[in-house]
Amino acid sequence: MRFSVGKLFKSFAYAASGIRYAFSSEQNFRIHCIVSIAVITAAAVLDFSLWKFCLLLFIIGAVLALELVNTAIEKAVDLVTKELHPTAKIAKDAAAGAVLVFSLFAVIIGLLLFFPPAVEIIKQWNAGR
Ligand SMILES: Nc1ncnc2c1ncn2[C@@H]1O[C@H](COP(=O)(O)OP(=O)(O)OP(=O)(O)O)[C@@H](O)[C@H]1O
């Protein structure tokens, strides 16, 4: 078995091209990217512990990856048929549903992670008045 560095870099380039496509053409992917940057910045400002930061990065990565898979499924379906078809609808709706389900749980986890430090800041702010 041979290991090819060139092949490895090529596969990174293909993956980067897929990410660039999703960013330039999928509004939801752009929204998720912007929200992710805001959430990571807020976590850094609030001085999150290492495990909380890792959990946050994991769920953000999972949401973005799922969004890319959703785009891949949409494009694959469009390639198979441009006609309206009930099975094409199920495939696209189920893929969108997967993103929605994970995003909802990601929001719940985010709220649970941000709630205690937010309460602490409000307490300190009230004490300082
Ligand atoms: N070929 C099809 N047959 C039946 N229903 C379809 C088909 N294509 C799309 N749909 C329906 O329209 C919805 C939106 O499809 P579309 O491909 O426009 O996805 P989208 O989420 O709007 O993607 P994009 O972000 O690329 O615009 C799908 O979730 C599905 O319910």
TrEMBL record:
Keywords: ATP-binding, Cell membrane, Kinase, Lipid biosynthesis, Lipid metabolism, Magnesium, Membrane, Metal-binding, Nucleotide-binding, Phospholipid biosynthesis, Phospholipid metabolism, Transferase, Transmembrane, Transmembrane helix. One of its GO terms (molecular function) is ATP binding. It comes from Fictibacillus aquaticus. One of its GO terms (biological process) is phospholipid biosynthetic process. GO terms for cellular component: plasma membrane. Pfam families: DAGK_prokar. InterPro entries: DAGK, DAGK_sf, UDPK. It is a multi-pass membrane protein. Its cofactor is Mg(2+). Belongs to the bacterial diacylglycerol kinase family. The active site is at 67 (proton acceptor). PROSITE patterns: DAGK_PROKAR. The chain crosses the membrane at residues 29-49, 55-73, 94-115. Mn(2+), Zn(2+), Cd(2+) and Co(2+) support activity to lesser extents. It is found in: Cell membrane. This is Diacylglycerol kinase. Gene3D superfamilies: 1.10.287.3610. ATP binds at residues 14, 26, 74, 83-85, 92-93. A divalent metal cation binds at residues 26, 74. Substrate binds at residue 67.
